[in-house]
Amino acid sequence: MRFSDIIGNEQAIAQIRRMIDADKLPHALLLHGAPGIPKLGLAMAAAQYLHCKNRTDGDSCGVCPMCRQHQSFNQVDTHYSYPFTDSKGTGCTCDDYIGEWREFITQNPVEDYQAWLHLLKNDNAQPQIFVREADSIMRKMTLSAYTTKYKVHILWLPEKLKEEAANKLLKLIEEPYDDCKFILVSDNEKGILGTILSRCQRIELRRPSTDMVARYLCDRYGMDMQDALALAAPADGNINVAERLVQTGSEFHEFRERFIELMRLAYQHDLSQLKPWSEVIAEMKREKARRFLDYAVRQVRENFIYNLHNPELNYLTREEEAFSTRFSPFINERNVEGIVAELERASADIAGNGNAKIVLFDLTIRLSILIRK
Ligand SMILES: [Zn+2]
After folding, report:
1. How far is the centre of ligand 1, averaged over its atoms, from the C-alpha of 53 (Å)?
2. Which domain holds residue 317?
């Protein structure tokens, strides 16, 4: 991983680059920020830059033996710790999960905790970093660096350290070996034990812009920029969310069809068809029905904006736009707020265990009045 592979956060990258160039990388550096912000990759890029034999233009070269080892996640002086479950037995350490870990970092350029749980084959588990992992870290840190000046230990999610493990690690961070650098990567720095937190130099990472997320989706999934922007916008800088939207594309296709049906039937005031429509949505699982209603809210807003004829403000896929060219005039300043409020109220009622059939049929009747305003 090179700095140039990291999305956004140029200032943080520059700061880390300066530290390494001046040989002043702290013993314990904490990279933190909300889930879905690329942080683990930045830690790996920093380790690669630290070890690279031929730094070029402020980045690792990507071709020297050190870089090649890093890029195959096989650099002997770079170690990782991460939360895991006891699914392979109670004496395990991270070394027993190294296969899953390599698969995880290879397949997820931006770390996604849900994907990690899935790889651990236990989506409902509560992985932790156990005290025996802290012992394993201590053993590794007492060994001299093999090939480089500094060993690097990247610890993903220090908020998952068990207290006893955190206390052991604390000693290592307080009295570090000269050739050892820790990079901690956290989704939630408030969950980290205060004693650890206070001994780390912290860098907070910021959400990438919608444009940056869209460009990432284009590169990774070969998407068209317009479609990528339409998925990146609701993700609000969370790349994990944006990627899930790509992966559930079929759901979006279904939502689009249902939304078009709803608007058409509401405009025709066709109650005989609106009732079966509301029953189809009510048959969805509660969370899916709510995702549909979120989608409908976004579409209503996008269609209102579409009337302004300023493409820079719109986040519609090409398919959605094909509908909006005809439909958008029906969403106007007299009804947009009312329609959004009704959709949001229906979502809240369903979340509150309201009878989905009644809530949704009631919604369709209100919409069929509002849409003609
Ligand atoms: Zn290199």
Report:
1. 5
2. 248-370
